[in-house]
Amino acid sequence: MASKKPNAKAATVKAQKVTYIYTKLALPYAQTLLRLWDKGLMIDNRPDAENALKTIGYFRLLIYMRHFQSNTAPRNFYPRSKFSSIVALYNFDREIRLLTLNAIEKLEVALRTAIINPLAELHTPHWYLDMSHFDDEIKYHGVIGKIIQGAGKEGHTKRGLAMIHYYDKY
């Protein structure tokens, strides 16, 4: 059996790692907009642009700015690029994310219901307390531990009204 030799190239790359000092300054919103203007971005509505920087943040918007900038240094904006277009792209992405998460939540609830209701009808509403329905005893005890912890006095208020009602009544 041959022994593996360390990769000399990989060792060289690791040795050449360079650490940079972060020297960028946090600027007031007006100065940030002026800096973007100097790079060719049209600030078509100054109050809205400042509000976007206050509520969304420069670095989150920076991801969306990249679509409006050249790929080469000094990364100036393409002609006729507007701050409002960047915010519109951010809002579009946000809406897609919200729609997607909403759909996932609906699927999760439907899947849980499709699994839990037939099991409750077939066995009992507390079928999950019977270990014979599970293959892995260690995982079963882990899940039961989480259920007990979540149903306890400390955890039940975090779980909402249904858990509070169930805990108090049963």
Written description of the protein model:
The protein is 61% helix and 0% strand. The model has no long low-confidence stretch (mean pLDDT 87). The protein is an all-alpha fold and 170 residues long. It has eight helices and no strands. The N and C termini lie far apart (64 Å). It folds into two domains: 102 residues, no CATH class; 43 residues, no CATH class.
Key words describing this protein structure:
170 residues; mainly alpha; 8 helices
Note the topology:
Blueprint: H1 8-15, H2 29-38, H3 46-55, H4 58-65, H5 83-122, H6 137-151, H7 153-156, H8 161-169
Query: How are helices and strands ordered from N to C?
Result: HHHHHHHH
How many helix segments? 8
Query: What's the main sheet like?
Result: none
- Secondary structure: number of strands: 0
Structural class estimated from helices and strands: mainly alpha
Residues in helices, as a percent range: 55-70%
Q: Compute the number of structural domains.
A: 2
Question: Could you tell me the mean pLDDT?
Answer: 87
Overall morphology: elongated
Stretches where pLDDT is under 50 for at least 5 consecutive residues are none
Q: What portion of residues belong to β-strands?
A: under 5%
Distance between the termini: 64 Å
Radius of gyration in whole Å, from Cα? 28 Å
